[in-house]
Design goal:
By secondary structure, the chain is of the alpha/beta class. The chain has ten helices and eleven strands. The strands form two sheets. A six-stranded mixed sheet has the order 7-8-9-3-10-11, with helices on both faces. Strands 1, 2, 4, 5 and 6 form a five-stranded antiparallel sheet that branches. Strand 5 and strand 6 form a beta hairpin. Helix 5 crosses helix 7. The longest helix has 17 residues. The radius of gyration is 20 Å and the shape is globular. The termini are far apart. The protein binds adenosine-5'-triphosphate and magnesium ion. Adenosine-5'-triphosphate (ATP) binds next to helix 1.
């Protein structure tokens, strides 16, 4: 029987390292992973290097950081040694990002319709009218009401949940191959968190877009993602099916799972990870 050819990965990261240029301090210490068109979660305690990893994939690392890898590719295209001009083309067409708080990501003085359509102006050949139609379609697809009127609204007129939907519309309008969402729902209340994440999963699935979701909400990751990678002190220490997070063998993953606050832990101290005695802890 003929075997299926192996699918080439959507994202292929081998030995990614991020260091602080002046002190040579290693912030991300040689991580490797691949992803297909799937929902892959990246979890880990604060400061473990999740956002830096995400920013390296967007070519948006802070100036103080240096990046290296033996291989880094998206859709078969190498991301190593790209000029800023190629990065900005890639950010418009291939990879997009949704951040925690739309307040800081949206331009306060531009109507949201203009902002959502802007990536099309920069990265597509569509005419003005088609861009306008696609923008309205996208606002509608993310579940915003009365889009004909809403397109003229300014960011301060939106609630947090609506702002996150606008961000999602803007990120997906160019149909990128990869969407990186860095704690996209952590500023929202519990009901909105579920709604916005569910929408993100549905839309990325419909558009065949890979979703790399950075989150502190492990039960949510277990419910919605296929795989999860666990990061600790700049290294990937565990990788597993997200649905099995509650049964992890790795001691750090177990502590992360046990640390989630909830009704069952109300009034009780949360467990603390017993760090190895010889571990170097910065700051
Ligand atoms: N611009 C910078 N200059 C110096 N150090 C930085 C910079 N950005 C991040 N770091 C350091 O890199 C490490 C990883 O940071 P990162 O933002 O990736 O963590 P994170 O896992 O996203 O944490 P959180 O869950 O709090 O968002 C931290 O120790 C942080 O202090
Ligand atoms: Mg972060």
């Amino acid at each position: 029987m003929a075997t299926e050819p192996a699918l080439s990965p959507l994202l292929d990261v081998q030995d990614l390292r991020i260091t602080l240029a002046d002190s040579q301090r290693a912030l991300v210490r040689g991580i490797s992973f691949q992803m297909q068109t799937e929902c892959l979660a990246l979890v880990g305690e604060s400061g473990s290097g999740k956002s830096l990893t995400a920013r390296a994939l967007m070519g948006l690392l802070p100036a103080a950081c240096r990046v290296s890898a033996t291989h880094l590719s998206l859709g078969g295209q190498s991301l190593l040694g790209m000029s800023e001009r190629r990065w900005s083309a890639l950010r418009g067409q291939q990879v997009a990002m949704v951040l925690q708080d739309p307040k800081y990501a949206l331009n306060p003085v531009l109507p949201i319709g203009v902002q959502v359509a802007e990536p099309l102006q920069l990265h597509s050949r569509l005419g003005r009218r088609e861009r306008h139609e696609k923008m309205l379609h996208m606002l509608d697809a993310v579940g915003l009401p009365n889009v004909q009127q809403l397109q003229h609204a300014y960011p301060h007129q939106l609630s947090g949940g609506m702002g996150q939907r606008v961000m999602l519309a803007m990120a997906l309008i160019t149909e990128p191959r990869l969407l990186i969402a860095d704690e996209p729902t952590s500023a929202l209340d519990a009901v909105l968190r579920e709604q916005v994440l569910q929408l993100m999963i549905t839309l990325t699935r419909e558009h065949h877009t890979g979703l790399l979701l950075i989150s502190h909400d492990l039960p949510q990751v277990a419910r919605y993602c296929q795989r999860v990678m666990v990061m600790y002190q700049g290294e990937l220490v565990d990788e597993r099916d997200a649905a099995t997070l509650a049964h992890a063998e790795h001691p750090y993953t177990r502590t992360l799972w046990a640390c989630r606050p909830g009704r069952h832990t109300h009034g009780q101290p949360l467990p603390v990870f017993q760090r190895p005695a010889n571990e170097v802890v910065y700051e």
